[in-house]
Amino acid sequence: MILISPTPGGLRVPAKPKVRQTSRDLDWRGTLRTPAFWVLYLMFTMVATGGLMVVAQLGPIAENFNLANVQVSLLGITLGALPFALSLNNLMNGASRTFFGWLSDHIGRENTMFLAFGTDALAIIALMTFGRDPVLFVLFAALTVFAWGEIFSLFPATSGDLFGLKYATTNYSLLYTAKGMASLVVPLGSYLKLQTGSWLPIFVVAIEIASEPSHSRAGRPCHDGFVAWPSRP
Questions:
Q1: Residue 14 and residue 16: Cα distance in Å, rounded?
Q2: How does DSSP assign 39-65, residue by residue?
Q3: How far apart are the C-alpha atoms of 89 and 85, rounded to whole Å?
Q4: 152 three-class SS
């Protein structure tokens, strides 16, 4: 490896971030005292619940739709509808983090959340409506996970924007416990199925939970006000 001493003007000046960021560095105590943290926590819990509820029930839904053993061919690959959906879901989950993280750097966190949460709700509606077709079952399940996986890139970034970078890992660790809270709500899906004998209530609850935080766009003035004093140059 060769090291070269940079010449004057040889280093690129980092571009000014397009997203507003605070210059304060709040520790975990200061973070927990802010209303912004609890708004994010509630949003994370709701979106995680909607996605986990659909993903956790995907196998039983496929069985109920008589699709578990139906063969699906896409892009030259032939698999059963359920294993195809589960495999594609993993790819979409990973891709969504990169895509929505990149998008949020350009159009803002709240705008990206609005787009992603709305897409997630529409994908669940499409899965509920057209999911008995094996190909559409695979595609709309993948779209649901694609729109859901962004929480693992947008919320860490938003946490850093609001509470600073020095304690970013600790602060996001606190925020990430919202996924654990969401997992406690997921069994509600099985309970609704047992009580009603239908998947419709599960889809309705998942749609409502996933779409409600899409109003996050309206919270942008709160975000801007929180980071406005003082702000990064």
A1: 6
A2: HHHHHHHHHHHHHHHHHHTHHHHHHHT
A3: 6
A4: helix
Architecture of the 28-217 domain: Up-down Bundle (1.20)
Alpha helices in 65-198 (DSSP H): 81-107, 109-130, 134-148, 151-163, 168-185, 187-196
CA-to-CA separations, 95 to 91, 138, 161, 173, 181, in angstroms, rounded: 6, 16, 22, 22, 25
For residue 15, what are the CA distances in angstroms to 47, 126, 186, 206?
A: 32, 40, 42, 39
- Pairing outcome for strands 77-80 and 71-74: antiparallel
Q: Is the pLDDT of residue 14 over 60?
A: no
Whether omega before 233 lies within 30 degrees of 0, making that bond cis, reads no
Alpha-carbon gap, residue 217 to 115, rounded angstroms: 9
pLDDT tens for 107-123 read 888 889 888 888 888 88
List the chain domain ranges.
Answer: 28-217
Whole-model pTM? 0.76
Q: What would the pLDDT profile of 19-35 be if each residue is shown by its tens digit?
A: 666 678 888 899 999 98
User: 80: helix, coil or strand?
Assistant: strand
